């Protein structure tokens, strides 16, 4: 057999082993429980909000727990560490951070953007940022940081759902 064939086989085996190794549960990864967070404004669900749990110091601190709300305003939380991802959240006390950036439609075509100079591109990007800053926010800014958010939650086997009504949070 040729050296080229051996090289292809070795590369194929390496790729398969790397892929399988990346999906393996890390040692010490905590038990997780099914968990969801619903974000509403009164009775109206908020779609597209990013929800993140920030755990108090301890065994769960290195685990990242996030979700994004769907059309019903509910985010199914997922836990991840390195390249391992699984549905659910570990038990423990955490602060809940919610973010949603206003959407500003991109009005330029790809051809128009390709024809712009670097300065024009930067000015256009800044105009989109400025427009977003002037738009009303669906999520109160107080919820956007782990040190400012007033939302504390304790995930447990029996308590793994949370509803946040942003209309009841002072802006």
Structure description:
The structure is a single chain. The protein is α+β, with helices and mostly antiparallel strands and 171 residues long. 25% of the residues lie in helices and 30% in strands. The chain has helices at 3-22, 110-115, 118-134; strands spanning 32-33, 36-41, 44-45, 50-55, 64-68, 74-76, 78-81, 84-87, 89-90, 92-99, 152-155, 161-165. The longest helix is centred in the N-terminal third of the chain and has 20 residues, at 3-22. The radius of gyration is 22 Å and the shape is globular. Residues 1-21 have low confidence and may be disordered.
Blueprint (SSEs and pairs):
Blueprint lengths: L2 H20 L9 E2 L2 E6 L2 E2 L4 E6 L8 E5 L5 E3 L1 E4 L2 E4 L1 E2 L1 E8 L10 H6 L2 H17 L17 E4 L5 E5 L6
Parallel strand pairs: 2-12
Antiparallel strand pairs: 1-9, 2-3, 2-6, 4-5, 4-10, 5-7, 7-8, 10-11
Essential attributes:
6-stranded antiparallel β-sheet; alpha+beta; disordered N terminus; globular; Immunoglobulin-like; 4-stranded mixed β-sheet; 2 domains; 12 strands; 171 residues; 25% helix
């Amino acid at each position: 057999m040729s050296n080229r064939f051996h090289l292809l086989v070795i590369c194929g085996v390496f790729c398969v082993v790397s892929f399988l190794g990346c999906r393996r549960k890390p040692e010490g990864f905590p038990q997780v429980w099914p968990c969801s967070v619903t974000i509403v404004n009164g009775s109206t669900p908020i779609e597209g909000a990013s929800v993140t749990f920030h755990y108090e110091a301890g065994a769960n601190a290195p685990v990242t727990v996030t979700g994004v709300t769907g059309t019903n305003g509910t985010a199914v939380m997922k836990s991840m560490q390195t390249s391992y991802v699984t549905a659910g959240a570990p038990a423990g006390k955490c602060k809940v951070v919610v973010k949603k950036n206003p959407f500003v439609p991109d009005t330029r075509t790809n051809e128009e953007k390709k024809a712009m100079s670097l300065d024009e591109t930067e000015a256009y990007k800044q105009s989109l940022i400025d427009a977003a800053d002037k738009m009303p926010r669906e999520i109160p800014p107080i919820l956007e940081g782990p040190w400012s958010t007033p939302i504390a939650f304790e995930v447990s086997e029996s308590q793994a759902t949370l509803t946040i009504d942003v209309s009841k949070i002072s802006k």
